[in-house]
Amino acid sequence: MSNECAVIWDDSLLSYDLGGNHPLHPVRLDLTMRLARSLGVLDGIELRSPEKASDGDLERVHTRDYIAAVRAAPHTDPAEVRHGLGSADNPVFDRMHESSALVAGGSIAAAERIVSGRAKRAVNLAGGLHHAMADHAAGFCVYNDCAVAISWMLANGVERIAYLDIDVHHGDGVQAAFYDDPRVTTISLHQHPVTLWPGTGFPTEVGAGPAEGSAVNVALPPGTDDAGWLRAFRAVVPSVLESCAPQVLVTQCGADTHREDPLAELSLSVDGQRAAYGMLRDLAERYAGGRWLVLGGGGYALYRVVPRSWTHLLALALDRDLAPSGNIPAEWTAHASEVAGNRALPSTLTDGVDPAFTPWDGVNEHRVDTAVRDTRHSVFPLHGLDPADGRD
């Protein structure tokens, strides 16, 4: 297998545009790719353009009726639009099917590079639309590219996949798609569902039937910072990955855990997010033979957070790690100023936070330890693991 990291990108992916002042604005992707280029992260990297996912590929996850409704929605009387389309979260936009299918095709292209052995890692930052369900849109997501890519890999010879979602919102659509499929382990760390949409992702959601134990949910209290988030992550995720032994690790890397994100209430820094991405890379090497499929996700601090966070993610995936103390290039700032208006822009790649944390050792002494305890007690026995064992 090649050690190459494939990066799936084309400006046509910016066409997934929900319009106006919608929080999921494509400017965040444009500014990310511009920042990565200006820092030399993409020097010498051949960016691979995606093709639209076929109806057959989409039907691995979505119903035929829903796909037809998405295709027809821009030409349908708004009063007649169904399937969660036409809402404030999921407004209808021109060429909605084509743009959404292109995002899903990007995630399939990333998956294909890994399955074919042409790359160990692959990145589609436009992907990560994890809320879309089989027959309806939800949470800014029309087609669930995460689930589509996973289903494509299962149909093309991969037997065990771990999906790890670090978006601030629960990865509900992917969990629902594979809730009774023992081949896919879904792990989601998110703000507690009592305090944040979509209201799912309780630790007692563990999978069904032959897949009992394959859904893992860590519900974190509002205000959780770098040290708490990383403590909870390490207390749960490595043990589960070791147990399920995935052949590919798929990660949804939403940047909306940041303390400046306007739609949620966790309190991570860019430095903490960078540390989390580094842990994802290490886990892929340790438990999945290095096969790592990287997807984007949420993130609504469009100018100050997402470009920095995901530039670090790209750099880590390409083994071109950037020093947190690095400065933002003037050329990026000049362009960003034109689109950001009077909004303050960052000057460095860091928030100046040390993301050090104390690993969980079986003692409940941190504010996230209730979440750790609840998840470990719900899931670990189903994997033959001791929920009270504090060893790393």
TrEMBL record:
Q: Which UniProt keywords apply?
A: Acetoin catabolism
What is its pathway?
A: Ketone degradation; acetoin degradation
Q: Which domain of life is it from?
A: Bacteria
Q: Which residues form the Histone deacetylase domain?
A: 22-315
Which GO biological-process labels does this protein carry? acetoin catabolic process; epigenetic regulation of gene expression
MF terms from GO for this chain are:
histone deacetylase activity
- Keyword DNA-binding on this protein? no
Which InterPro entries does this entry report, sorted A to Z? AcuC, HDACs, His_deacetylse_dom, His_deacetylse_dom_sf, Ureohydrolase_dom_sf
One Pfam family of this protein, by short name?
Answer: Hist_deacetyl
Q: Which family does it belong to?
A: Belongs to the histone deacetylase family.
What protein name applies here? Acetoin utilization protein AcuC
Q: Which organism is it from?
A: Actinopolyspora mortivallis
